[in-house]
Amino acid sequence: MEATMLRGGVSAPKAFDVYRIREDFPILQQQMCGHPLVYLDNAASSQTPKSVNDRMHRYQSIEHANVHRSVHTLGTNATAAFEGARKKVAAFINAASEKEIVFTRGSTDSVNLVMHSFGRKNLKGGDEIVVTGLEHHSNIVPWQMLCEEVGAVLRVVPVTDAGELNLTEFERLLNRRTRLVAMTQVSNAIGTVNPVQEMVAAAKKVGAVALIDGAQAAPHLPVDVRDLGCDFYLFSGHKMCGPTGIGVLYAKQSMHERMGPYLGGGDMILRVTFEKTIYNVPPHKFEAGTPPIAAAIGLSAAIDYLQDMGMTEVQRHESGLLEYALGRIAQLGGVRVIGTAKQRASVISFMVGDIHPHDVGSLLNGYGIAIRAGHHCAQPVMDRFDVPATARASFALYNTADDVDALIDGIRSVQRILGNQ
Ligand code: 7TS
Questions:
Q1: CA-wise closest residue to 139 among 202, 184, 105
Q2: Which residues approach ligand 1 with their CB closer than 6 A?
Q3: Is residue 33 among the annotated active site residues?
Q4: Domains defined along the chain, listed by start
Q5: Eight-class DSSP state of 268
Q6: Span from the CA of 136 to the centroid of ligand 1 (angstroms)
Q7: CB of 134 within 8 A of CB of 189?
Q8: Global confidence as pTM
């Protein structure tokens, strides 16, 4: 990407038509607390473009019917749109077949599905599950619950001072008892990009199943599940310009026969009698009840939108912004960035002197700047860096160098107001 010189001699990425892209997002056009909204809380949830909102509105207004059941035209069209969304997702992450795509409520639901459906069926006392010290709670707690239930043991890959995984320790943790390795591709708390392809290969060497939490990766970089070699990959619609209430679990076909049902009910069955129930084939076996149809169709439109931009371009734009922001923060003084990994993506966690991150977040809000302050559902990461919470700015494809400049000005004001340098 071409670079232009902005304030302070730090180079800023030249917009890949980012100002045109912003016009697609009505929410970004508004003022907040008397200032133009600067939305930097994309790791929590991103905004949706008009095309996604319009598509969902059209479905709800004139196309709505349930799926997989009715022979009337609305019913068959809804089924086609819903199953079309599944195909779209499969292509987006290069799955071998749409049968490998399960629609869930989100990343959390996807991990829990794997825990119940695969974990409870395949793990027993003495087995080991490896997670990393960079996980979101949703990729920790379900595995702790499983360990408690079956007597398995949780092992944790330690994190270095830079916020990278200690891969030597990771290799040492792997052994013949390791049944599952569950790892995030990108840390939501500090932005580290983990070498998941390498880690999957190591897990495979000891015969373990590999799960990747892609909640913070799929929205920001190209994903190819076959290239990664993982057995499970998951992400949420609402972090990638799609709606809430929809997530994806990629479950490699070779895993299907090792997976029991998740929720029981309609649609996940072929035949029910009081004596015996025969389950439907995957992915339907894992999708009981009426699915989030409008949300799946919205996710499909979001993928169209992202693919239109090109995920490589999105990644390039965001890494330019990240570099620019890190450069400007370094020049500020008095701001400690938590996590300095070489490979990073779209997240900056920071402390402004010893001002509490909630105060930083509240003051920035007064300037129309939305960041998140807190533990980011990653308390073990906070513990590792000995902080109760951080302030976190996280970027999406529609953020600009102006947003970064506004953040820097905002932090300066925080420093001035709370007397901290
Ligand atoms: N995994 C990662 C890496 C995440 O960042 C999140 C949400 C989840 C899983 C759970 O996703 P959900 O859609 O099921 O909620 N992360 C954040 C965050 O960083 N701030 O708010 C939610």
A1: 184
A2: 43-44, 106-108, 136, 138-139, 184, 188, 213, 215-216, 236, 372, 376-377
A3: no
A4: 3-47+310-417 (3.90.1150.10), 52-308 (3.40.640.10)
A5: S
A6: 7
A7: yes
A8: 0.96
